[in-house]
Amino acid sequence: MDYPAFTSHWQSNAGPLLSAFSEGQHSFIPYLLPESALQLPTPKILQLLASRIGKSLLQEALDPAQTIPSPLAGLRTTNWIKQTNMVGINVRTIQNFWNIIKYSLTLPQAQQSIHLLPIWEPGVVASLYGMSSWNINPEFFSSELQESFPQLDTVEKQLKVVVNILHATGRLVGMDVIPHTDRYSEIALANPQHFEWLQRQDDRITSHRAQLHEDVQQHVYQFLREQGPAKAGIDLPEDAEHFFSDNYPEGARIELLFGGREDYGRRQQRRGWLVQHLYKKGYEPAPATMGPPYRGLEVDTRPEAKTVDQDGRIWRDYKISQPQEMSRVFGPLTRYKLYERLDDNRNWAIDFQRPRQATWDYVCQHYNALQLAFNFDFMRGDMSHVQMRPEGVPATVDNYYDLHKAVRNYIRKAKPYFGYFAETFLAGPNVIAYGNEVDHLEQADADSTLGDLQSMVVGSPRFLQNFRWYLDILKTRSFAPNFTLMTGDKDDPRFDDFYLGGNEARLFIALFLTDMPSYMALGFECRDPHPTPAPNEHYTKLYVFQLGDGPKATKGPYVWGQNSQLFSRLTRLRLKAEEILPQIVDAETHWLLPPDPTGGARVIAWTQSNPARYIFIVNLDVEEKAVNIKIPRLPREARQPLPRIVYSTHRENAAGTLLNGNEKQIQLEELLPGEGVVVEI
Question: Which residues fall within 8 angstroms of residue 372, CB to CB, at 6 or more apart?
Answer without folding.
Answer: 414
